Structures are given as structure tokens and as C-alpha cells.
Amino acid sequence: MTTTEPGTLLRPAPPKTEWNRSRIGRFLIGVERRTGRDFRTYEDAWRWSVDNLDDFWAAIADEFDIRFHTPATAVLGTRTMPGAQWFPGGTLNYTEHVVREWSGRGHDIAIRSRSQTDGSVDWTGERLLEEIGRIQRGLIRLGVKNGDRVAGYLPNIPQAVAAYLAAAGLGALWCSVPPEMGATAILDRIGQLAPAVVIAVDGYRWGVKDISRDVELAAIRAALPDASFVLLPYLDAGATVPAGVLPYAEFTAERGEVIGEPVPFAHPLVVLFSSGTTGKPKAIVHCHGGFLIEHLKAVGLQQDLGREDTAFYYTTTGWMVWNLMVSSLLVGTAVVLVDGDPAWPTLDGEWSQWAIAAETGATFLGTSAGYLATWAHCGLRPADRWDMSRLREITSSGSALAADVHAWIYHAVTSDLLMAPTSGGTDICTAFVGGAPIVAVHAGEMSCRPLGVDVDSLDPHGAPLSDAPGELVARQPIPSMPVFFWGDDDFARYTASYFDAYPGMWRHGDWLTHTERGTWVITGRSDATLNRGGVRLGTAEFYAVLDAIPDITDSMVLHFEDGTGMGRLVLAISLADSADAADSALTNLEARVRTAIRTQLSPRHSPDHVVIIPSVPRNRTGKRLEIPLKRIIKGEDVTDVIDLGIVIDPDGVAEAVKRISTVLHAVPA
Questions:
Q1: How far lies 646's CA from each of 114, 220, 266, 614, in Å?
Q2: Taken in order 292, 103, 337, 362, is the CA torsion positive or negative?
Q3: Helices 53-63 and 23-35 meet at what angle, rounded to 10?
Q4: Does residue 481 have a pLDDT over 50?
Q5: What is the pTM for the complete model shown?
Q6: Whole-angstrom distance between the N-terminal and C-terminal Cα of the chain?
């Protein structure tokens, strides 16, 4: 992997004469024609979209032919945040729009599922709609009605997609948690909702390891005695269904037409959960209309997906990306579902994300920055193994994408694609910053703010910043902002989470830098920012340097206050072959790390300790678990902090804690 300077131009913006090659370009040309405006650049179009929110979102509703059963009285009623009212008076249904798209394409593939547990299967549009209808009949027989909660303890399989859409069609709320979570983590989440129905699997396979969920399901059933349980045999097709639990085959025995009950725009659709790394997970409630209109814009315009595309998002059912993936069905895009270990049997084996993308003919890949970095650092080139010619866009999320890794994509995968790192959040289930097919791509940076998303980087006094990190703030409402938190009747927790720093504006908790090129860089979480002697240091800038050192496969930055103002800064790094490395080689590597940090960042960034650990704790979506690890090192019990089932290498957590604690507690010589 060659060294690439941040900001290096990797892909120029197409001339405006080529805007008509993408849907977002054609959409904006249509806006120009209707309004008499002239968008010379994407930034001009973005400015129009946020200066004219009502006109913009009305145009999106028209572009995608959103069906209102009852017309709205306005685009935006109350504009104040929190509490903005989108399309007041309007009624619609999210599921109805998926049904509308696929009812006329019954023989086209809607879902390609690849599972290490039960193999490969493709579902046509007809098969998907049939399953939705069957699940709805089963839910109705169990007494589910508008406003009830339906929970899925399910992996990323077609039945999970169908169950989500079935519940939504009835006006019930859906929530899903992946089966790698244990009973405590599950109950911390769905236990808040008192679900009417829980649909679960008996277990799953990760690589060659069979993982039963029998014990966990028994604990969940005991804690939720009023819920009806449905068991889908997945790990063992012949699994015995416990007494009092409804077999999935019986649950789905009755066919029926899909119901899409009209509900208000703000009617709850889905509950997503925060990570729970700083307390009990927040139950974040999103609405039908918000997901529908924002996701149509996101997948249809910013990602340029349509009926000719196949989208492969590597995700679990517990990540907001899963819901965004399902929304690809709204624009007629087929989706690829994968349940399994992407590094089994080897990183470049048949279950790698590149192999799955090639085998399924994916045109779009949504992955994590951590996964891309692992490949880049190993010196592997997907294009040498698989045909990547159909792939025309990759998005990455979960953490910042280093400039070197960003450039590696164009050399090792294909030069003819859009590589669009994005940053958003569970809280809005979309992007604050990302990319678009009509914008240039610069190494290590995000290209633009999405249309209709009024985001900026602000200083503590609310003034915009350039070339310096500030708080990521949304100055105006976004349709997919939560309608409320479950159980937060007075909106106290909601308000404290986003609106305590800048009254009337959403503060997300990320440090955001607006570069001189008009691009954007996330430099870390403001709640995980390192403060050394009063100077804020973002974790992402450390990772950009460490990612460029070939011997390092992964890294984590931790800062521990000690009352001196400077604190103690720990760089935890993992190596490909640290067990075989000589002491002299490790000493030399530590010196190189310190030199790189000092010279490329500043002496204030220099670590107090460099610790080699077996693996950096990350969750299944690739997110570094910095705050949980820090809490464990500071003495909290691991079971109170995190469910190890969500960690890629759970066995490595204890060793990481041991090694870091050892250096922190060592007596100076």
C-alpha cells in the first residue's frame, strides 16, 4: 500500500454536461427547469435544498411518487427542534411502497441470501411479498394491532426483512437484535418495549462454530411472560420447539394479501437502540414517513441505486445500516444478505465481502472502514482474485477511512467506481456527510453534505469553522430524526442527548472539520476526545497515521485522566505476527510509531505507552469499542459494560485489558 496524502484528488467531479447520467443529476436538472435556478456545482444545489426545505422535500415526494392516502396540509408545520412536524395531516405506509415496487416484478430477484448456517437462497419479489403476507396473518392471529411492538431475535436473513415489513404494514413497531447478543443485552433493549411478539432463531453458525441460543431464549421468555414467541429453526432444521412457543411454519401457514394500513407520517415504524456504552441503550423511535422520504433520497439520489442494481451491505440486524439496506427495496434494488464470518476460512476466502460481491453481481457495497483497512494493510488485491467490474460504488462507515486505504480501493479493486465514505448515526438512520456521483472524491475525506441536510462544524459560540474541528451540528430538521425515545414521556432524555449545547440545533457528538476543498472529515467523538493540557485531540487523526504503518493491522487510542491535565495516553496496536517478532523488532516498531505521531501530528500527541494487544476490540460492524474498553480497564465489570457476543474477537478483550492495565499500573523506574 502506497502512502497517500490526505486530500489527494482520487476522482474528479464529472462536468455538468454529464449530470444526466445519474438520477441525482437528472433530479437537479429538473429542479432548475421548474424554478429557473442555475446550479453550477453540487454545493449550489445543496444550498438551495437547505435554504428551501419545504420546496426541496416536496420535490423529493414528487420525484419518488410517495403515496399519501390523506394529503398533508404542509411540508413542515412546526419547525422547532425538537418537535418539528413533517407533512402534518398526511397518511401513508412504508411497507406499501415496497409492495408497490415489487408487485409488478414478481419474477425478478429481490433478495440474495448467503448464510454459513443454511446455505444460499434467492427470493423473488413474489416470494418476498408472499412471506410478508403470511407473517401478517400470523401476527393478526396472535392479536397484534396498530401500535404493538414486534421484536426479531434474528440474523440477517430473508425472514427478518419480511417480518420487519409485515409488522410495519400493520402499523406495529418493529425492532431487531442480532442473535450474537446475550440475554442481558437483549432484555436491556427489547425489554423496554414490552413486545407483543418475539420471533427468534434457535442459533446460528459463525464460520464452523455452532452457537445455540436455547439458554438465551429461555431467559428472554422468562423475563417477558406476556409476549408470544415464535421459533424459526435455523441452526437445526429439526430443532424441538419448546412448549408454549409457536413453530415458524405454523405461524406462517396462512397466505394472504399484504396489508399496508395508512398511518400518520410521524407514526412509529421502528425502534433502534444506541450502543449502550455510556448507559442503558436509548430506545430511539423512528417514523414511517421519515424513513420513507429520507431513505428514498439517500438510496435513490445520493447512492444512485435503482432497478438495475444489486446492493450488498455487510451488516447485522442490530445496526441502522440494516434498515437502510431494506430501504433499497423501495427503489427496486435487489439486496444481498450475508450471515456469517467474512474472514472464514481465510480473509481472502470464499466468504470475504469481495467474493460475495462478485458472486452475487453486486453493483454497490456498503462495508466498514475497518474491513477495508485490514485488506489494505495485508497487501491483498481483490481485483486479482475476483471480477469486480460490476461494482460501481462502495460506501464505508463505522470509523474514519484513512487516505491510504481510500486510495488503495482505486488501485486494488477498480479505478472506475465511486468510493464514498459516510458518517451518520443510529439517531437519524442516514448520513450527515457522505458522497454523491456528481462530486469529486478526495483521499481520506467525505465529499459533501447530502441534499436537505443542513449540517455544519461549529465552535462553542455557534460560529462556523473551517480547517479546524468543531461540533457536528444540524441547524434545521431532517425528516428521519427520531420522533421520540421510548419511555421518555417528557422528552427530557431526548433533549439532553442532542439539544443541550446549541438551543434549537441538533448536536450529534462528533468532531467535524470542513476543509479548504469543501470536503469533510470526522476527527472523532466529542465524548471520546482526548484533552491534553486543554488541547482537544481527535482519535481519527491518530488512526490516519497508524493506519499508514504497514506492520500495524489495527489500533486503538485511549486516554486516562490522572489529575495532571495531560493524562496518560495509550496507543494499543495489533500486529500480524507479534508472537514471532523479536524484542528488537518490537522496540524498533515502537520507535517508528512515536516518531510518526510526533512528526506528523505534534509532540502533544506523543503517547505515554505503546501496548501490543492480540486484537483491537471491535463490534461485528467494525466499530472500535474505545469507551467500553476504557470503562473495563478503569475497573467496571465487563458484564456490566458490554455483551462479548457482539465483539468480533471476544477472547481478546481480557488480554487487552490485562496488558494495558499492566503498563498503567506499573511503578515508574
A1: 20, 17, 31, 17
A2: negative
A3: 120
A4: yes
A5: 0.87
A6: 39
